[in-house]
Design brief:
single chain, alpha/beta, eight-stranded mixed β-barrel, 10 strands, about 20% strand, binds ligand C2E, binds magnesium ion, EAL domain-containing protein
């Protein structure tokens, strides 16, 4: 018995009946058709140094321009295709699109590294590295450091040895990794110790609550300490207010991403944004408390 969810037709079903199974397959087919019909789009959200305003690059975030339902965010359709081959197809499309955007910006003289989110199943696909190598060549040998990948720490990365090998192979292609939503998984510390990732991306839930909740603040400070101890970089996501930016700078977190800086935008809007953007004056002036 499929749930009649009203507005959100793409919800997760219990898969406890044939009807649910059929409904899920129908939804997957719809995403797949949308992909083939060219209805998917990448938006780009800047990552910056909060103190001096330097733009570090952008994160690619997928959207679905649905013919009837308007612009849909990934939270609506990615869960539907999880563990299905369509997830791999979508992931390949995203990588290709991002690499083509990189070449385009490069040809326009815009140096703008792109970070792409990669699903765990896609990363562990047997052809992942070979496909990526081909893609990089096809795009005219993208400069090292222009493409990075974001991976969410999740139990789906179950084979940590294999994931490490994939990451090492990507490093040889000049591609680095960020561990996304850091601190939300059950085994963040294991991943930190075992995976060759360059940077931790502090989950937005800690940033959102750090000003009111001493425990979230403590977790955030703990992550910053861990990053230092392990020699990894760190960036905060979900920086929504000027005050949050100030707090992060005081804690020694220099890099951030969030609505206080910019919302995700179409590629065409980015050059103008880069031109116009300056960080709030208060960020430049914020000292780091007790910096080591
Ligand atoms: P994520 O990678 O952790 O991306 C951050 C999400 O937070 C994005 O949501 C972004 O639009 C949103 N965000 C950014 N700044 C702020 C802020 O200041 N406040 C708040 N409240 N939110 C902010 P989005 O675009 O809906 O993406 C959701 C998730 O979907 C992403 O989380 C990522 O895990 C996944 N995703 C997005 N695009 C792709 C993709 O191309 N491939 C894969 N595999 N996953 C993707
Ligand atoms: Mg991400
Ligand atoms: Mg995240
Ligand atoms: Mg997330």
């Amino acid at each position: 018995r499929a749930k009649q969810g009203g507005k959100n037709r793409y919800e997760i079903f219990d898969l406890d009946s044939d009807t649910d199974q059929r409904e899920r397959l129908r939804q997957i087919a719809e995403v797949s058709e949308g992909l083939k019909a060219g209805q998917l789009q990448l938006y780009y959200q800047p990552k910056v140094n909060l103190r001096n305003g330097e733009v570090r690059g952008v994160e690619a975030l997928v959207r679905w321009q649905h013919p009837e339902r308007g612009l849909l965010g990934p939270g609506v359709f990615l869960p539907v295709i999880e563990h299905h081959v369509t997830e791999i197809e979508l992931g390949r499309w995203v990588l290709r699109e991002a690499c083509q955007q990189l070449s385009l910006w490069q040809s326009q003289g815009l140096v703008m590294p792109i970070a792409v989110n990669i699903a765990a199943d896609h990363l562990q696909h047997p052809r992942f590295v070979a496909d990526l190598e081909t893609l990089i060549k096809e795009c005219g040998d993208l400069a090292v450091g222009m493409l990075s990948l974001e991976v969410v720490e999740t139990s789906a990365l179950e084979d940590i040895e294999r994931v490490s090998e994939v990451m090492e192979a990507c490093h040889r292609l000049g591609i680095r990794f960020d561990l996304d939503d850091f601190g939300t998984g059950y085994s963040s510390l294991t991943y930190l110790k075992k995976l060759p990732v360059e940077r931790l991306k502090i989950d937005q839930s800690f940033v959102r609550d750090m000003l009111d909740d001493p425990e979230d603040l403590a977790i955030l400070e703990g992550i910053l300490g861990l990053a230092r101890a392990f020699g990894r970089g760190v960036i905060a996501e979900g920086v929504e207010t000027e005050e949050e930016g100030r707090m992060l700078l005081r804690l020694g977190c220099e890099d951030g991403q969030g609505y206080a800086i910019a919302r995700p935008m179409p590629a065409a809007d980015l050059p103008q944004w880069v031109n116009d953007w300056t960080p709030p004056v208060s960020w430049r002036a914020t000292p780091t408390a007790g910096a080591a």
